[in-house]
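Figure 6 in text form: structure in, sequence out.
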């Protein structure tokens, strides 16, 4: 089973990740990891920090001759901005001279609870680790599972369906067409847009909305759609809460900074409709076997993959570092004051789509490993082929 941890402060020397459980024999190139890191750095509405960083992962263990060897893979992404923070973020002795303390919490951020919970007299350490900079390490870690899944014919992609008030103009037929070509093809198409949107009209509106809030020192959130193609039927389980695939996927997405809502398929819309219009009826089609006309379950029935495309939707709140201040207070004086500004993005929804793709990759990989086991890619490929064949043969062609 795949487990991973990340470490690193936003302005410390580096971010790192240790990923254990990727089977042996998976071919991984530097590009497999770095291309995902580069995708995460893009998107209209990013702030000044992205001009400083060019994220690249150094692989410190777990690969030999371009293939995984089954041992833990450790990754490191250096923070280029570190050189500007060696005093503020010094690991050992406090440097002489003044290091300004942060004493005004930003509403919506981890600042308030983090400072009190960990007993700091400065909010800086909270800002450093709660920062979404951490997602660079998650994307690097997720790229390993993603590459393993690609070898199994399973692909992950995402696009942004709305940013603030803009969105919702993608014709379902266009999405269907892209999904038939696989999740990665959908992701590539979204990557052509600065907002990672699939409709030009949506993109234009979204960029105008970002410009408008930026001028006012404000921020915008949005909705991310994640798709996983090629997952055969029967992964995950209904028998125990912690083996439910829908729950594990939702948890992975909810764990991303600023994500406050997760939906599987059109779940909220389904809740307003009668069951007869919600459930994806079974059709036995000559020459094709089992088919469905719809996928309103989002590819998950009984917490198991249904063999259809898995679809998750996530709501990202607007970033809580605003240039225009909100009401706050100062821990030093205990007097009301306005919140202070930390350099930030106006909108990071496009990047969060790439992070969401990376977050679900190990969850799907684990569902495969839970059912099939196996320590080497070849062993898993053989077992997966047997499983796919068994499902195919169940239904008359
Ligand atoms: C972030 C604040 C900004 C963002 C950062 C997330 O960083 P800084 O404080 O250095 O300006 O740029 O995102 C990243 C650095 C990144 O790589 O995504 C925050 O407070 O969450």
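Output sequence:
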């Amino acid at each position: 089973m795949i487990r991973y941890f990340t470490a690193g402060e936003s302005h410390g020397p580096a971010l790192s990740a240790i990923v254990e459980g990727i089977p042996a024999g998976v071919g991984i190139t530097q590009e497999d990891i770095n291309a995902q890191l580069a995708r995460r750095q893009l998107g209209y509405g990013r702030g000044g920090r992205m001009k400083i960083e060019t994220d690249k992962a150094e692989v410190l263990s777990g690969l030999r001759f371009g293939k995984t060897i089954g041992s833990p893979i450790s990754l490191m992404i250096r923070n280029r901005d570190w050189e500007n923070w060696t005093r503020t973020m010094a690991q050992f002795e406090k440097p002489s001279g003044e290091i300004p303390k942060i004493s005004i919490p930003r509403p919506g951020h981890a600042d308030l609870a983090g400072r009190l919970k960990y007993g700091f007299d400065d909010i800086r350490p909270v800002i450093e680790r709660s920062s979404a900079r951490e997602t660079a390490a998650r994307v690097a870690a997720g790229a390993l599972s993603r590459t393993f899944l690609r070898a199994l014919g399973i692909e992950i992609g995402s696009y942004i369906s709305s940013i603030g008030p803009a969105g919702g103009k993608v014709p379902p037929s266009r999405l269907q067409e892209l999904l038939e070509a696989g999740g990665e093809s959908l992701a590539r198409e979204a990557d052509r847009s600065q907002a990672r949107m699939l409709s030009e009209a949506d993109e234009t509106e979204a960029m105008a909305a970002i410009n408008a809030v930026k001028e006012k020192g404000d921020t915008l959130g949005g909705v991310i759609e994640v798709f996983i193609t090629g997952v055969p039927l029967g992964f995950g389980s209904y028998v125990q809460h912690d083996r439910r695939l829908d729950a594990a996927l939702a948890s992975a997405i909810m764990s991303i900074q600023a994500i406050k809502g997760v939906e599987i398929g059109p779940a909220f819309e389904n809740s307003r409709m009668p069951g007869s219009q919600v459930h994806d009826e079974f059709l036995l089609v000559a020459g094709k076997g089992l088919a469905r006309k719809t996928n309103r379950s989002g590819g998950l029935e009984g917490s198991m993959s249904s063999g259809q495309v898995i679809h998750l939707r996530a709501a990202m709140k607007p970033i809580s570092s605003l240039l225009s201040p909100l009401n706050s207070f100062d821990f030093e004086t205990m007097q009301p004051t306005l919140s202070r500004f930390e350099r930030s993005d106006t909108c990071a929804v496009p990047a969060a789509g790439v992070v969401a793709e990376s977050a679900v990759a190990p969850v799907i990989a684990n569902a495969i490993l839970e059912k099939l086991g196996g320590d080497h890619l070849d062993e898993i490929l053989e077992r997966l082929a047997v499983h796919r064949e068994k499902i195919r043969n169940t239904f008359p062609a």
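Caption detail: The chain has a mean pLDDT of 97.
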